[in-house]
């Protein structure tokens, strides 16, 4: 520190609390991240990526392209679909989880296609939907990865997909919105843990130690499972309010506008309200 201009564009900013909540989220159909997971390009058409973004060649060759923490989450969560942005190019891949250990090898991008490293199944236009597990109750054996381009004329920045939902969600029988019990429990457990001295002694390097991270996740997950059962009546009340001035009102300084629904749910489960300066 301070960051140089080049370092600033390549740094990944991840809040420890947000990362823990992410890792505790459990079986997921869809994950959205700004950053690409480290090494996910190895499961796709790397030659195509290099043609579209030639300045990525060095990072691809050194194994440095992507976020390490996003890669850890990718391996841990194994969602059916993972969508990212950041590199401003459309890119698809199908990652087979049982064979997807990303290797930081110093090799050309073309060499990384070695099937002993990572298996992939895709073409230049998209991933093969038939490769994705349809078992909604088990962790998928594959994850479809899709990144899109910038929202500009002539760019491939939007796509339509049909994704089967899971049966049994109360929202299927109602027009209302509902909180997710596990998500509320995760917020409660992680916020309580963040208030302890043990949390303040952690740094981001601790999250890159698999044994320490796994031990922490197991401990926190037990608390999540325990208090998840305590939450009922998860329907979100229709008490929407206008919380910020519109364009027709007098302009004011840029600031954080507290949301009444956020305040109410934080009070309900006993967690602090969002703090924009929080680490």
From TrEMBL:
Gene source species: Metschnikowia bicuspidata
Pfam families, per database record: DBR1
GO molecular function terms attached to this record: RNA lariat debranching enzyme activity
Limits of the Lariat debranching enzyme C-terminal domain: 132-275
Ranges where the record places region Disordered: 105-139
Alphabetical list of InterPro entries matching this protein: DBR1_C (IPR007708)
GO BP, one annotated term: mRNA splicing, via spliceosome
Name recorded for this polypeptide: Lariat debranching enzyme C-terminal domain-containing protein
GO cellular component terms, semicolon-separated: nucleus
Acidic residues biased stretches: 122-132
